[in-house]
Amino acid sequence: MSQRSAGPEILRLIELISRLPGLGPRSARRVALFLLKRRDTLLKPLADALAEAGEKIDRCQICGNFDTIQPCAVCQADGRDDSLICVVEDVPDLWALERGGAFRGRYHVLGGVLSAIDGITPEDLNIASLISRVEAGDIREVILALNATVDGQTTAHYVADLLEGKGASVTRLAHGVPVGGELDHLDDGTLAAALRSRRGV
User: Fold this and answer.
1) Residue 189's pLDDT band (cuts 50, 70, 90)
2) 75 contacts 60 by C-beta, under 8 angstroms
3) Going from the N-terminus, what domains does the chain have, and what CATH number goes with each?
4) Which of 37, 107, 111, 158 could lock 63 by a disulfide, CB 3.0 to 4.6 Å apart?
5) Would the pLDDT of 200 be above 70?
6) Strand, helix or coil at 10?
7) 18 neighbors 26 (Cβ within 8 angstroms)
8) Among 137, 129, 80, which Cα is nearest to 109's?
9) Strands, E, within 89-140: which ranges?
10) What is the β-pairing status of strands 106-109 and 66-67?
C-alpha cells in the first residue's frame, strides 16, 4: 500500500498489526480493513479493551502470570500444593496446564528460554527469582515443563544445574507418544524420546 492510497493513520494501523505473530504486511492490510469496516461493532470495542488491558493487567510479582490483581488469581487460589513449582517458558504454557486441570501446584514463568542466536541470556529470564523461591520456601519438587526444543532443553539443563543442592528434586515432563498417536506418524525425535521415557506396566 503506497502513501498515495492511504493516510498515515491507516498506514500506522497496518504497520502495528503486522507486528503481531503470524501476520505479515498483506494479512495486516486485510485485518485493518476488516476492523475499519466494523468500526462500531469491533474496532472501537477492541481499542477500548486494549486500552483497559494496558492499564490494568500486569505480571504477577510471584509467578509471572498476567492478571489484574497482585498476586494473580492462580497464586491466591486455595487448595494448591505449595511444595510443587512447575516452571514454564511463558504465560500461554501456564494457561495450557491450567486448562487441562492436571496440575495443582504453583507456577513460575521464565519469560522465555536461553538462546544464543537471539542473544537471550540468563539475566534476561526470570531465573533468579525462581532460585530465591526454592531457597526461601519448603519446595520438595520443581517440574521443568519447558518445550522440547533445543533452546528449551538447554534452559532446562541450565536451571537444573542451578537448583542442584537446593533441597528440591528436579523433574521434567515426559516426552514421547501423544495420546491417540500412531507410531508411523511420529517423527524420529519423538520416537527416541518415547523410548527413553519408557516405564513399566
Assistant:
1) confident
2) yes
3) 8-56 (1.10.8.420), 82-195 (3.40.1360.10)
4) 107
5) no
6) helix
7) no
8) 129
9) 106-109
10) unpaired
